[in-house]
Specification:
By secondary structure, this protein is an all-alpha fold. The protein has a domain at 55-180: Regulator of G-protein Signalling 4, domain 2 (Orthogonal Bundle). Helix content is 65%, strand content 0%. It is built from eleven helices and no strands. Helix 7 runs antiparallel to helix 8 (106-121). The protein is elongated, with a radius of gyration of 19 Å. It starts with a helix and ends with a helix.
Length: 181
Amino acid sequence: RCHPCLTSSFPSLHRAKEIKTKLGTLLQKPDSAIDLIIPYPEKAEKPPKAHKPSPEEALQWRDSLEKLLQNTYGLTSFSNFLRSEFSEENIEFWVACEDYKRTKSPVKMAEKAKKIYEEFIQTEAPKEVNIDHFTKAVTMKNLVEPSASSFDMAQKRIFALMEKDSLPRFVRSEFYQELVK
């Protein structure tokens, strides 16, 4: 319980403690089969040969991260490239968020939210993504009552980071150059 003089002077401090308590409760949920829900492959996968894009299709990816990520072969190639640079946490977070948004069951949604939070958002997370303090705070507040949009702001920030930073490097890489030949 907060000290009365603190909560009257700093009402947001009391609200922050309340959010932290609720988030703590959410994150205490049993782990049942959580590791089976969002698999993160450890080793690089070969893109499926059957769906290799035409050079024209691959050329469109230079200007559109969205088109690249919508293409299974493109997503796999981009993931492998980032893995080769030891910077795969951004794409893994983005993929986990996409999977999370498709989740219908509130129980599964809460489990996935916990997993994503622990793996990518919390300070010192094993694959902590680079988001600003404000985005992290909004995301934590959204996780008090998980919904399909809980990670939207963080996912948009990471998408923008990949678009500005990772995509240009990918386009210059051998991974990409092989596709547009």
